[in-house]
């Protein structure tokens, strides 16, 4: 009985510590349609913006392998595909890091431009994107996370 009680207490502590370790997300994401004129009617330009808490950073789109997880923005539905390269601001390059390699980071409110092609049938909810990222401070790194964003398309597509 005492062994069972100890096991229950230990497992409860492990579960609670795992939930606390996950903690709140220091990065919030938003997406909006960028108005454009002319061009391909199936191509929509989306602006993805991160709001990163002070002291935190997210690794760049161009972060090299062998270190932290780089930012990735990809289609989140079968009817959506990339229509070009995802672009963003120039990252801040830190020559020294805990990873032993130079790292490229964003902080504050970086904005990324994502051209997408919306196929037929167009999604009812809009164009979905998946944003995979890793957030760190100078002393702590969270595990990579994935945010799902949905942009409402013009014209009710």
Q: Describe it for me?
A:
It is built from one helix and eleven strands, in the order αβββββββββββ. It is mostly beta strands. Strand 1 and strand 2 (43-52) form a beta hairpin. It is elongated.
Name its key features.
elongated; about 160 residues; four-stranded antiparallel β-sheet; single chain; 1 helix; mainly beta
What's the arrangement of strands in the largest beta sheet?
A: 1-2-8-5
Envelope shape: elongated
Number of strands: 11
Q: What's the average pLDDT?
A: 82
Strand composition percent:
35-45%
Please give a quick description of this structure.
With 157 residues, the protein is mainly beta. The protein has one helix at 2-22, and strands at residues 27-34, 43-52, 57-59, 72-75, 80-82, 92-94, 103-106, 111-118, 127-133, 135-136, 145-151. The protein is elongated, with a radius of gyration of 20 Å.
How are the elements arranged and paired?
Blueprint: H1 2-22, E1 27-34, E2 43-52, E3 57-59, E4 72-75, E5 80-82, E6 92-94, E7 103-106, E8 111-118, E9 127-133, E10 135-136, E11 145-151
